[in-house]
Amino acid sequence: MRKQEGVIKYQLNHTQQPISSLYSLADINAWRTIAVRLELIGQSPERYQNIGFGNISQRIDPHSAQFIISGTQTGHIEQLSPEHYCLIVKAEPHQNRIQSRGLCNPSSESLTHASVYAQNHAIQAVIHAHSPEIWKHTIALELPHTMADIAYGTVDMAMAVEQLFQSGKLTQTSLFTMLGHEDGVIAFGRNMEEAAWQLIKYLSLAIRIEPQRVNR
Ligand SMILES: [Zn+2]
Predict the structure, then answer these.
(1) How far is the CA of 109 from the centre of ligand 1 (A)?
(2) Separation of CA 108 and ligand 1 centre (Å)
(3) By residue range, what is the domain housing residue 125?
(4) Are 123 and 190 in contact (CB under 8 A)?
(5) Ligand 1: centre distance to CA 14 (Å)
């Protein structure tokens, strides 16, 4: 599984063209930088064989199915520039197809983001983080999760996400883990701040479960 991390598995129809400067990237970019500083998004020789991990996205407007997402293999850059973002013009999770525009290819997990947006129009922001703490304590924290046999970035994952929403488990909690994707967590919200807050809140709850790491 690890070897395939970061590999795009969907059919991509990408137009190599800058995205419109009318889209404000200030909000998404600031929250992404915070996620990098918290090591929830990034790239490190100690983690996943130095392959970039985590990504972030935001709907372009409340009524659109289109969203902006960070580009693939950008984990090593602390502060992204507009050319590192990509517009998802059309996503068809069931057909495993994505149409995008930008100066880089979209994240390999764009299909999972698309599947989250498709479940509820109120969802305006999605963060896919890698948090060993939250992931490891999925059961203790009673977190909604997709099963261990569902791999990231696949049609199966898109369908598993759909089922998770239909199960009603995501009405109280705006975060779930992906047991088939090491350390994989997805948080979402009505804006970037809300999605980020979910992540930080559960990170705090997960850290509390590990008393051995507390300095007494
Ligand atoms: Zn991931």
Answers:
(1) 7
(2) 8
(3) 2-213
(4) yes
(5) 21
Q: How many CA atoms lie within 13 A of 174 on its CB side?
A: 24
Mean pLDDT across 38-48: 95
pLDDT at 4 exceeding the cut of 90: no
Q: State the Cα–Cα distance between residues 80 and 52, nearest whole angstrom.
A: 14
Q: Does the predicted TM-score (pTM) go above 0.85?
A: yes
Q: How many domains does the structure of the chain reveal?
A: 1
Of 117, 55, 63, 130, nearest to 86 by C-alpha is 55
Cα 205 to ligand 1 centroid, rounded to whole Å: 21
Ligand 1 centroid from CA 188, angstroms: 15
Ligand 1 centre distance from Cα of residue 2 (Å) = 10
CATH number at residue 105: 3.40.225.10
Q: What is the dihedral angle through the alpha carbons of 114, 119, 122, 125, rounded to the nearest 10 degrees?
A: -30
Phi, psi of 65 (to 5 degrees): -90, -10
